Amino acid sequence: MRTCCLIIIVLLTGCAGNDSKSLRERYKSEIIQTEADFARMAAEKGVAQAFFEFADTLAVISRGGVLIQGKEGIKTYYEKQLKPGTKLEWKPDFTEVSGDLGYTYGKYTHSVPDSTGQVTESHGIFHTVWKRQADGTWRYVWD
User: CA angle, 138 as apex, 135 and 142 as ends, to 5°?
Assistant: First the structure.
């Protein structure tokens, strides 16, 4: 009887671990898809709109040593700071998740046209923290 109970406990523990691992992999896939949707919206509808749409209500971004807080604050910041024609492209190189939080990092390219149409590009590394919402979507809380 003890052996049978031990086997059942081991099997249940193993199954729970597999469920946890499959859930983690599912969440990682969801975050990767969310990043792709986020980048696509930035290209199609503009950086300000994308950063607004994919932000958690209490999201924070750090730009130039200043913290910009909340969805509306982030949208206002981008609407005021970005020159027309500015593009931001990125793709995560790494994604990890633990529970309802995940993070990504990778490379970005920021392209800004001047008044003559000459485009200046800058490159860098981004790091984004994602939070799973009650409705199952992922929104960034830090960028």
Answer: 135
